Amino acid sequence: MNLSDSNPYFTLKAIKWEGQTIQKEVRQWDQAKYRFHKINIGIKFTQDNQIIYSKNQAILRIIKVHDFFENPQLFNNVDQIHKLTWQGQYDKNRKKEGKWVAFWDKSILKNVGGYFNNGQKQGQWKDLFINYFKQKLLKLDYILRVFELVNGIIFLKILKQMVGYTMLMVKSKANGLSWMKGFVNINKSLIMVNIIFMVQKQVDGILCINMLTNMELIGNIRIQLLYYVCIISGGGTYDQKGNQIKIGKWIELDEDFTFDKQVTYSGDYNDNGKKVGRWDIMFANYGVTQDQQMYIYQKYKKQSIIFVFVLVEVVYMIWKEIRKRLESGQNWMKGILQVLSIQKKQNIKVNII
Fold this sequence. Notes:
Layout: E1 2-3, E2 21-30, E3 35-45, E4 50-55, E5 58-64, H1 78-83, E6 84-90, E7 96-104, E8 107-117, E9 120-126, E10 143-150, E11 153-161, E12 167-174, E13 177-185, H2 193-196, E14 201-203, E15 207-218, E16 221-232, E17 235-238, E18 246-253, E19 262-269, E20 275-284, E21 292-301, E22 304-312, E23 325-327, E24 330-332, E25 348-352
Parallel strand pairs: 1-2
Antiparallel strand pairs: 2-3, 3-4, 4-5, 6-7, 7-8, 8-9, 10-11, 11-12, 12-13, 14-15, 15-16, 17-18, 18-19, 19-20, 20-21, 21-22, 22-25, 23-24
């Protein structure tokens, strides 16, 4: 049996799952290519209430559970399998009860979780989005930085860094876009410039990236430590009957939402939880003060819905001009300005569903 990751929760009522193995498609983060790729794993439900995650007969994780017969929560990427745990109490009927909290790599995730009553979520909850993970940022613990202002251009020069890289970066602002140029990496190792330097921005309540600094004096050298905080928000309203049906206005994150792919979807659901009307695809690049927009066109014919849309790995380009038309059944795009060549094969996807 195969399961996709379109829904992180699977209700296993009325099915005898003990001893069965299912195949599930999950995402694995590729640090070298700086993106997710999909892999298939096996998930086995044992007779003694264990869930075993494996790939190519190698065990990834074994979890002892009490209530997987009713409503298990399965992981959706490899980082979750290795690092995500939920902790709480069970009642005498082996149903979740009371407060439950989440841990990532044995450290509690602040303000994540909520309360269960008789195995059902109750009250206010703060859940993780479907493909939650923590990106491995380049470690820049010990750096000495000097800022110079020359002819209106800010030069950011890293004079000392203990992890062995030396580089020169220039940040310029033109036509309302912040961009990086003049990147020199003496070590000739790939370093993503948007990791090393991030601008602070807030876009329609969707994404806020803050660069927090802490100055420390080591000997006669003042060192600046960098920390990054990412706050992601969106959401909407569910029906009041507990059926988990989305209604009204919603802002949804793309299932592969990361620093690099800041793609969200904005539109409306009807009372039956079906998408209606126009849905906008919003995306943002570092240094851009507002979300830019692509469109979803919906056609209705005998209650069937056809979505035509464009998905973009936005980290690898700045969009100079985007046009999408439907002529003679063909979609085309025009005027993409490529500014950062990281991989030989770029990932521009035109999907028709």
